[in-house]
Amino acid sequence: xxxxxxxxxxxxxxxxxxxxxxxxxxxxxxxxxxxxxxxxxxxxxxxxxxxxxxxxxxxxxxxxxxxxxxxxxxxxxxxxxxxxxxxxxxxxxxxxxxxxxxxxxxxxxxxxxxxxxxxxxxxxxxxxxxxxxxxxxxxxxxxxxxxxxxxxxxxxxxxxxxxxxxxxxxxxxxxxxxxxxxxxxxxxxxxxxxxxxxxxxxxxxxxxxxxxxxxxxxxxxxxxxxxxxxxxxxxxxxxxxxxxxxxxxxxxxxxxxxxxxxxxxxxxxxxxxxxxxxxxxxxxxxxxxxxxxxxxxxxxxxxxxxxxxxxxxxxxxxxxxxxxxxxxxxxxxxxxxxxxxxxxxxxxxxxxxxxxxxxxxxxxxxxxxxxxxxxxxxxxxxxxxxxxxxxxxxxxxxxxxxxxxxxxxxxxxxxxxxxxxxxxxxxxxxxxxxxxxxxxxxxxxxxxxxxxxxxxxxxxxxxxxxxxxxxxxxxxxxxxxxxxxxxx
Amino acid sequence: xxxxxxxxxxxxxxxxxxxxxxxxxxxxxxxxxxxxxxxxxxxxxxxxxxxxxxxxxxxxxxxxxxxxxxxxxxxxxxxxxxxxxxxxxxxxxxxxxxxxxxxxxxxxxxxxxxxxxxxxxxxxxxxxxxxxxxxxxxxxxxxxxxxxxxxxxxxxxxxxxxxxxxxxxxxxxxxxxxxxxxxxxxxxxxxxxxxxxxxxxxxxxxxxxxxxxxxxxxxxxxxxxxxxxxxxxxxxxxxxxxxxxxxxxxxxxxxxxxxxxxxxxxxxxxxxxxxxxxxxxxxxxxxxxxxxxxxxxxxxxxxxxxxxxxxxxxxxxxxxxxxxxxxxxxxxxxxxxxxxxxxxxxxxxxxxxxxxxxxxxxxxxxxxxxxxxxxxxxxxxxxxxxxxxxxxxxxxxxxxxxxxxxxxxxxxxxxxxxxxxxxxxxxxxxxxxxxxxxx
Lengths: 488, 439
Description:
Structural class of chain A: alpha/beta
Radius of gyration of chain A: 24 Å
Number of helices of chain A: 12
Helix content of chain B: 25-40%
Number of helices of chain B: 17
Strand content of chain B: 15-25%
Number of strands of chain A: 23
Strand order of the largest sheet of chain B: 1-2-10-7-8-9
Strand content of chain A: 15-25%
Helix content of chain A: 25-40%
Oligomer: heterodimer
Distance between the termini of chain A: 50 Å
Number of strands of chain B: 15
Shape of chain B: elongated
Largest interface: A-B, 50 and 49 residues
């Protein structure tokens, strides 16, 4: 397979596929606003929400889908979501202000993550639900409520360190949440602050792709809720966080061929596939492969709403082996989820203009420099390997021969690589072409972006379909009632 | 045969000829080495005993725990061996994907630890992968553990170099087979046997089988995963080929049903891979040749694996009085009552209120005076006939009124004159503000 290009083509659903194909529109936006540029597609997020809702419906579950705001700071996406029945999960004072300003009423907001006093006060003042990390935070919140004579605040008790019965499921240690074995102490604090807080249920968030670990935590949460009830509390909900993932690639075979080739390259059995022989976590120790592939599983057959469905179908061993969904329903608990990345699936792309295509002396990969920094297109930061799509400036390029390229950013730094791997493209890009990085809305757009070296951070626009045409406006100008959106 | 210890029964497994009418090869005699007949049920008995045996005396002295990264047969053999010597055994695994094996290990007294999954958001602060951390913990703990280290331990290979390989040659009357076909897991058996055979006759061809990359076959690694195995050396194999889970199950069925060999999917993969490889070579010459493959363990532990992939193989005739037989019209026509009507009915006629939810949910909150018969149990009950007197009115309740409607329709069909389903279920009951108790 050595000579053949190892493509990693992005999975494109109809809306994003249509946008990528709108070459004229994409070039005209970048001409107007510069490169790099993020384009978000607000209508897609509403469609993704509906997929989650349908999983809820199929299990007869009630409860809220909270969009995890941290995954993208776009106003357009947030406002589009405000026009649905979704909630939003905010992790900072700024995000809370943004959510309130976008039209989310307090009942549809959960505040989570590390909180400063201002964040906590505004949350309590507005009446949003607070996911409480520890006893100290509960004390702090109760003190605020009393001092400022606020109404009791609805709280979810965020838990961690779940233990399984029978088989011990080791879980990554989390810096958030109260270990379940300290739950009694937390409940004592809740009872102490009965005048200031209303315990609505428990919450957890596990950063793992493993359904088993999440199932263990959900089972542990049900046990924790039972403990709450036995102490006379009336909890109503369990919030299982997010982490349901995205399938980024169109074809399993490409992903498998690529990772196999990468393994062979690390073991020295084929030419390197990366700049400087980077192994993405794998290393060669005297002919044996060691380490772990530090990559996002970019081809995932089960992700997003389907992942939630699979989780809910898992049997709970310590509760008679009934599926978790059935137990939630039978206990009359609301299920809250906080998908970030999964709700942003297919919700946007990032455009970068090709500045230079350099042929190396003696052949080898082409060196392609883009008008963008690596932090503007942070796919690599999240271990997501996916090819960009070439959006040509003119008509047909100089032949359609596949090429291998290295993609560099515009910073004056050796480390500013848009991708650390060799990227295969079906044709040679030319200066002036755009590279469209698909599906970057979840974490890969503005999570890491800086203005280093006085280089611009990517601008952002919102785009929507109007019949056969794509229309757009600045992200901040987008409202669900924007007149040019036609009938909507 | 008389032994002083069960461990003496390890090895000397039969070599059984597969009927040519089954495999259809004209010129090649195909033999199965039945490692499934080892006392703890698999080829891993040899490796486990070879690796642990010499270290047991010292481990007993220190009270060490035996540990291994294994999700299956090695863990099983080590758990038994450790138990026989009064030692604990812990299996650390990436994911034990076959539930029966997990339960069996727990039954044998093993402790199982599952390693955490991959991070959804790539964590640049993560210091190392879980496996490296595991090795570091072992190294740091001194003699607290007896780590058999099957993926790197040369005694794993040696068990087959001195045992399995020579046994094959002996049973073929001193001849070395022309082909040896083995699935690659730890690479211990394939490497050891291959070496033993080559020492006798370097012309033996060795076929290594791996699982297709997207598939899972218990006990076999994929082409990438074998690279992580210290004992794996690509030079051992003349060719590497892959087998899918479906093919493994096909091969297993042939062994089970047509050969009377109750091997599991790994043995099935070996059979399938062997026949596929040999078929192409069968026509080449008229000379009689011989091939050997390994049946590494038994089918019994893999029923859920089969159920998941080939439910049709476990199909049973439909049962009597099953709610699944009802038409949608029958379910839609089931008598139901609203919460308000139900409350009045309970006051006046005292129907038996049956709550179909799980005992945990029932214990947390339920309608006062109701009885709890969880739906699965209820399904068993009604299979035999009506579980209530016809004169006893019955109110069925479930979370949202869906299952109760189904069972209401079923009981009506079975001849109960007054069974009703609570419309909207316990959730509607709660939402209407009707009392739920916890007693």
